[in-house]
Amino acid sequence: MTLPASDAGFTLEPAGLEALADELALLSAELAEDASAGRSAAAAFARALDGQAGWAAQATATAWASLDELLVDGTRAVAGTLRAAVAAYRAEDVALAAAVGDYGLVLR
After folding, report:
1. Which of 33, 45, 74, 94 ranks highest by number of CB atoms within 10 Å?
2. What own/partner pairs with CB < 8 Å and gap ≥ 24 does 76-81 have?
């Protein structure tokens, strides 16, 4: 694995990260709906099919809904992390600007 050069940096675009966080929040809402539908399907399978087939269909739909719920949790967590990173970046930017202002420096 190659390590980045020591002078390599990155550019943070707060608006872009916020837009990504918003998209992830929408995705998590859609996944939550899918999880709910999966739970409903699991119950319907159990009622509609007898024996092993009903049990297998119910177990599969329940497992799929559980996977959706894990994705919902993870997606919400990533969206929250991005929002927190943007908030921290902006707070640091404000603090740096205030510090520069305290010393009477003008950057052009």
Report:
1. 45
2. 76/24, 76/25, 76/28, 78/21, 78/24, 79/21, 79/22, 79/24, 79/25, 79/28, 80/21
pLDDT tens digit sequence for 2-16: 666 667 677 778 999
Could you tell me the sign of the dihedral formed by the alpha carbons of 93, 94, 99, 100, in that order?
A: positive
Question: What's the N-to-C CA distance of the chain in angstroms?
Answer: 40
pTM of the model: 0.74
Token pair listed for 95: 């603090």
Task: Please tell me what DSSP assigns to residue 45.
Answer: H
Is residue 24 within 8 Å of residue 72, measured between CB atoms? no
Structure tokens at 42: 């699991």
| Residue 8 within a domain | no
Domain boundaries, position 94: 15-100
Do the domain assignments include residue 1?
no
Residue 98, phi-psi category: left (phi > 0), alpha (psi -120 to 50), beta (remainder): alpha
